Amino acid sequence: MNKTLDHIGIAVRHLDESIQFYTEVLGGKLFDRYRSEAKGVESEIAVIDLNNSRIELLMPTNNSTSPIARFMKQKGKGVHHIAYVVDNLDEALEELQKQNIRVMEETRRVNKHGRRLIYLNPADTEGTIIEYCDYPDLV
Fold first, then answer.
1. Can you give the pTM of this predicted structure?
2. In this protein, which residues make up the domain named VOC (predicted)?
């Protein structure tokens, strides 16, 4: 199954300052900005397009329940996850199961852009948070 880098998620403390850095210093363009209160997300998200590569800036909106807040308490701000787009998320999950790679089922969702996604268990990915996603409405 094909896997291509989709985006990099970066945990930030101050979204406006981070947007300013990624747009003014690195030359990116703000593609979208939205707030998600979905369980397991609870963050404000800015999507930056940087020469046809995507960066998601993630700022927690609930410091007691947001997984981004928990991540920052443990590791500080910085790269949170790497996302790979797959041809078909359901088939990719079957492939992972055959390889004994666990996923974090509670993270499965569809975002506002129609992207279906799920996170792989970091215990099975050498500690890296990896997202698998697909865009079924764009096929």
1. 0.90
2. 4-135
